[in-house]
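dumping this here so i dont lose it
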């Protein structure tokens, strides 16, 4: 047989490449890394409002996100947590609570989008949500399609009522369902660290919870935050460890404790999801949540999660390398009393001429010299940027 009917290789190879590209393009959803190149920023209803959510509240929060300057500071997602859903229709379609969300989720998404913001929603990979609303188990594809048709931009997927299920398998199903939904949707895995989600999370979702729930007190917040050390190797652009949402401004911690919460979360390259009432927050809370020098550490394009480099009793030093060659350094005092913390230039690999900038208070502090030894308040922090 002659090769008269065969296309020459010079035509065939470009054709194969082209078809591959076409096939990839019809798979509408972009790879997860394009959705969260830096840790997500937004707000979530759970920490302050629990089950008490409704469309009026969510619209007002979206308004406040713009008027308070949160949007300008980078906060983007307005996320409704548990309790927006009540039942399923005969065909299985999920139904929003008509008392609390009379206009429906699509109309809420339209409103949030009209403000230049994005809407997030919540479900559960098991049979019911933690508040016993319908879960997405065996409805993954249908729910992902419904969310996409409503214009949802983000979904947090919890892990209640999932007895006998394997999180790695169930969350992969959800990932695939979202990929087929026809809309880019940030995927937040919320299984509280069960079965080490940092191992499979990077190929499954954009963020994964590493622990149980945060509460609005220093002990719980600090136990969660300071035990993240060692997980830094699993985080990077598009896929982040999630030590849970912020409690800043909810009233259970002191000013220094909330500053520690924020400083630790930005060093951890954690998602920044405010959890307070944005409509009524005090100036002190707004200033902390919108501090641009602090947020820049979290959102640094290098996307490296920080880690601990030194500890002595209740004192800890953490470092996060930044894209311009400088480093963010957190000097944390976990005791109740004011204490001096000694930062040696050698410890963080900089010359004595490297300069220091206090990010929380926007102050230049001069050169580090051989050692810089500030006093740090009890439960407090000094967050500095050290030039290269
Ligand atoms: C928990 C979750 C919380 C919140 C709550 C809602 O499992 O960790 O962040 O979503 O469920 O019921």
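and the seq i came up w/
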């Amino acid at each position: 047989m002659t090769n008269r009917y065969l296309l020459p290789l010079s035509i065939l190879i470009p054709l194969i490449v082209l078809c591959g590209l076409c096939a990839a393009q019809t798979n509408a959803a972009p790879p997860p890394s394009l959705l969260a190149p830096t840790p997500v920023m937004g707000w979530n209803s759970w920490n302050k409002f629990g089950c008490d959510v409704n469309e009026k509240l969510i619209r007002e929060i979206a308004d406040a996100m713009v008027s308070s300057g949160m949007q300008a500071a980078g906060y983007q997602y307005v996320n409704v947590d548990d309790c927006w859903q009540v039942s399923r229709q005969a065909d299985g379609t999920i139904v929003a609570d008509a008392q609390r969300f009379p206009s429906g989720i699509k109309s809420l998404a339209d409103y949030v989008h009209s403000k230049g913001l994005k809407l997030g929603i919540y479900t559960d990979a098991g049979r019911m949500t933690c508040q016993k609303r319908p879960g997405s188990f065996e409805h993954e594809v249908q729910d992902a399609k419904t969310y996409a048709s409503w214009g949802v931009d983000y979904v947090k997927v919890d892990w209640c009522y999932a007895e006998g299920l394997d999180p790695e398998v169930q969350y992969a199903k959800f990932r695939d369902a979202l990929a087929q939904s026809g809309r880019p949707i940030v995927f937040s895995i919320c299984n509280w660290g069960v079965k080490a989600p940092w191992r499979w999370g990077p190929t499954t979702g954009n963020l994964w919870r590493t622990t149980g729930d945060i509460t609005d007190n220093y002990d719980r917040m600090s136990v969660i935050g300071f035990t993240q050390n060692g997980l830094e190797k699993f985080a990077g652009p598009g896929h982040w460890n999630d030590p849970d949402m912020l409690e800043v401004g909810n009233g259970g911690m002191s000013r220094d404790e909330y500053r520690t919460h924020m400083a630790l979360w930005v060093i951890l390259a954690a998602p920044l999801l405010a959890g307070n009432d944005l409509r009524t927050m005090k100036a002190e809370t707004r200033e902390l949540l919108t501090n641009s020098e602090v947020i820049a550490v979290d959102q640094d394009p290098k996307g490296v999660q920080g880690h601990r480099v030194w500890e002595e009793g209740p004192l800890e030093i953490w470092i996060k390398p930044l894209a311009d060659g400088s480093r963010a350094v957190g000097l944390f005092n976990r005791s109740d009393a004011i204490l001096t913390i000694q930062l040696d230039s050698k410890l963080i690999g900089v010359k004595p001429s490297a300069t220091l900038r206090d990010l929380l208070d926007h102050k230049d502090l001069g050169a580090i010299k051989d050692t810089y030894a500030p006093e740090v308040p009890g439960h407090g922090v000094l967050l500095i940027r050290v030039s290269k």
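Residues 46, 81-82, 129-131, 158, 160, 190, 213 surround beta-D-galactopyranose (CB under 6 Å).
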